[in-house]
TrEMBL record:
Protein name: Putative exodeoxyribonuclease 8 PDDEXK-like domain-containing protein
Gene Ontology molecular function terms on file: ATP binding; helicase activity
Pfam families hit by this protein: DUF3799
Protein origin, superkingdom: Bacteria
Keyword ATP-binding applies: yes
InterPro entries assigned to the protein according to its UniProt record, in alphabetical order: PDDEXK-like_dom_sf, Put_RecE_PDDEXK-like_dom
Organism (species): Ligilactobacillus agilis
Length: 287
């Protein structure tokens, strides 16, 4: 390992990603290795709508501290506008008003602020704690939303469109399968990794608790614990899954193995050519 020192300032940089695996990088590589590698090497920037990410960060920074929230609002985005400016509608009938997605974000904050369990558990914990560790020979990093070492819990806020609709994943044999919210977004992997990184960083085994809040009006609130036998088994299965998948991901990041493209995502679409995608038996010779 080189001299790189992980800090709050460089946590979200590609340099950090080259030294430590994280849940988001692991998930990116699982979706499409070619796209994930191009993103990591700065060769490609996805054009996806950033609103869901901004709404999530809006809620997280609010509960981190007043200072963190103001810093988030004053941050400039790729188009030169601050988040505060981007939250306001610029045209049409709603001009000058807060955009719908951020009205819902404010409402999500109100719902959480009024919740007894959330106030007693999440609010007092230490926020945005960086943890690192060795998972089966590979360095990982994580950022804990709220950590309570004394009571041996860590908390994570998850914002989602709807807490009941689940998510589609691709199975090993290529089928699409609908699974509950927690597995669908890889939160089982994240919670298993975070528990292990907290253990290695602080020597305390903490249990995860997800505070899920839906992007609906009114928002639904749900507390998801992992202390049952089934959930504990789910967390160990998630770590086994990481152990199986990560050697190839790390080898692709290090340039030892070649990335495999999914052939369907935004990145793969941009790289598609007629000559490599000819369907049927006709062979065409290009000069
Ligand atoms: Zn792809």
């Amino acid at each position: 390992m080189t001299e790189f020192k992980l800090t709050a300032e460089n946590y979200y940089t590609q340099e950090a990603n080259r030294h430590y695996l994280s849940k988001s990088v692991f998930t990116d590589f699982e979706k499409c290795e070619a796209a994930a590698l191009a993103k990591m090497n700065g060769e490609w920037n996805p054009k996806t709508d950033e609103t869901p990410l901004l709404v999530g960060n809006f809620v997280h920074s609010y509960f981190e501290s007043e200072e963190a929230h103001q810093k988030f609002l004053n941050q400039t985005t790729s188009d030169g506008k601050t988040i505060r400016q981007k939250m306001i509608s610029q045209s049409g009938k709603t001009k000058g008003q807060t955009k719908a997605a951020f009205k819902i974000a404010e409402q999500m904050i109100d719902r959480l602020t009024g919740d007894e369990a959330f106030n007693q558990l999440y609010v007092p914990g230490e926020k945005e704690v960086i943890v690192t560790g060795d998972i089966h020979g590979i360095q990982w990093m994580g950022k804990i939303d709220s950590l309570d070492l004394e009571n041996e819990f860590f908390y994570d806020i998850k914002t989602s469109k709807d807490l009941h609709s689940g998510a589609w994943i691709k199975t090993e044999d290529g089928r699409n399968q609908k699974v509950p919210f927690v597995q669908g977004f890889g939160y089982d992997i994240q919670m298993a990794i975070y528990r292990e990184l907290i253990r290695q960083t602080f020597g305390v085994i903490c249990q995860p608790l997800i505070f899920a809040v839906s992007k609906q009006t009114p928002s639904e609130l749900m507390g998801i614990t992992f202390d049952g036998d089934d959930e504990q088994a789910m967390l160990s299965a998630a770590l086994d899954y990481v152990e199986e998948k990560q050697p190839h991901i790390k080898a692709v990041i290090d340039g030892i193995e070649k990335p495999v493209g999914c052939g369907m995502c935004e990145y793969c679409r941009s790289k598609s050519t007629i000559s490599t995608n000819l369907i049927g038996a006709t062979q065409i010779k290009l000069s």
